[in-house]
Amino acid sequence: MILVSVMYPAGGRFDMAYYLGHHMPLVRERWSSFGLHEAKIVRGVSTPDGGEAPYQVMALLTWESADAFQKAAAAHGAEIFGDIPNFTDRQAQVQINEFPESGA
Questions:
Q1: How confident is the model at residue 44 (pLDDT cuts 50, 70, 90)?
Q2: Model's pTM, two decimal places?
Q3: How far apart are CA 5 and CA 60, in angstroms?
Q4: How far apart are CA 38 and CA 17, in angstroms?
Q5: Closest CA to 35 of 72, 73, 74
Q6: Residue 88 gets which letter from DSSP?
Q7: DSSP H/E element including 26
Q8: How far apart are CA 72 and CA 67, in angstroms?
Q9: Which of 18, 53, 67, 101 has the smallest CB count inside 10 Å?
């Protein structure tokens, strides 16, 4: 299993209603059959010292494998990534994460 973090930097436009009502259902519909197990959304609130959160929204996508993610992106990436300007003017940062074997 891997976790793909899609992080949208703070500032700029972000239409949460569109994101939750259209974009994320599209992601789940197109990518679930490719090995997307779970998609959680979190909204950045602040830093520990009360400053502005560096990311306004993060999507945490749990995948069967990195290969599954690559296949899904190849099959439907143009549609999914092409939808991003419909809800934000920010460039997402994407990171692929592994779960440690020990689970710690």
A1: very high
A2: 0.90
A3: 5
A4: 20
A5: 72
A6: B
A7: helix 24-31
A8: 9
A9: 101
38-64 as b/e: b if 16+ CB within 10 A: ebeeeebeeeeeeeeeebbbbbebbbe
Do residues 34 and 75 make contact, with C-beta atoms less than 8 angstroms apart?
Answer: yes
pLDDT tens-digit map of 46-103 = 999 999 999 999 999 999 999 999 999 999 999 999 999 999 999 999 999 999 986 5
On the CB side of 79, CA atoms within 13 Å amount to 14
81: number of Cβ within 10 Å: 12
Find tokens 């440690």 and name the residue. Answer: 100
pLDDT above 60: residue 39: yes
